Amino acid sequence: QSVVTQSPSASGTPGQKVTISCSGSSSNFGRHYVYWYQHLPGTAPKLLISKNTQRPSGVPDRFSGSKSGTSASLTINGLRSGDEGDYHCAAWDDSVSAVVFGGGTKLTVL
Amino acid sequence: QGQLVQSGVEVTKPGASVKVSCKASDYSFVTHGIAWVRQAPGQGLEWMGWISGYDGKTDYSQKYQGRLTMTTDTSTSTAYLEVRSLTGDDTAVYYCARVMATVTLFRYEYMDVWGQGTTVIVSS
């Protein structure tokens, strides 16, 4: 069981906005940056959002991240069929001295 | 940008060991680390630990209780993960990922580039 809670599924139609949320605790999100990883079928996971809000080079500005206290969100604007896959939040956790991941959100584009 | 290429599928028996490799290219291996993360069928990602490419220091997840060994070969920019005493619960896809770190202080920051994954199947 993950110490970080993440909704297991999300969906939207092309062009819509979708928000995926993660809830952590004081030992992880409360003290450390949150990172988001995109895992599309048949590919390697990809860093999507770094340090709560930063987009690595090459990530479209349709993707944005935010954090408030022990909660974090990933927002995808202008949803596309190619966005369908799994999205994982992660952060370092001081209580277990390890990276903790949310359980992953499966995004379906209807 | 960097690239990580992992070894192929492994099928092994309970009680055995497996060793997975992760070859890095297009970046400086010794100024980064390598993390290992696994994903069991139907489950989320799970942290296993990381190793510094600078000096080989390791930080293992307590969950694995001495069953892991992470090593590096800086001459070939390759990292290795060995898992011993395998059970069916170790059936998973194992990923390596480049760690952005302050390697001289052995301080983990985050993972950015990931390998394609290695499927390990443990079955009698």
Outline the fold blueprint.
The complex is a heterodimer of chains A (110) and B (124).
Chain A: E1 5-6, E2 9-12, E3 18-23, E4 35-39, E5 46-49, E6 63-68, E7 71-76, E8 85-93, E9 98-101, E10 105-109
Parallel strand pairs in A: 2-10
Antiparallel strand pairs in A: 1-3, 3-7, 4-5, 4-8, 6-7, 8-9, 8-10
Chain B: E1 3-6, E2 10-12, E3 18-25, E4 33-39, E5 45-52, E6 58-60, E7 68-73, E8 78-83, E9 92-102, E10 107-114, E11 118-122
Parallel strand pairs in B: 2-11
Antiparallel strand pairs in B: 1-3, 3-8, 4-5, 4-9, 5-6, 7-8, 9-10, 9-11
Give the number of DSSP strands of chain B. Answer: 11
Helix residue percentage of chain A: under 10%
Low-confidence region ranges of chain B: none
Strand content of chain A: over 45%
Question: Can you give the helix content of chain B as a percent range?
Answer: under 10%
Mean pLDDT reading of chain B: 96
Count of separate DSSP helical elements of chain A? 0
Mean pLDDT of chain A: 95
Rough shape of chain A?
A: globular
Based on helices, strands and strand pairing, what is the structural class of chain A? Answer: mainly beta
The chain pair forming the largest interface, with residue counts per chain, is:
A-B, 24 and 23 residues
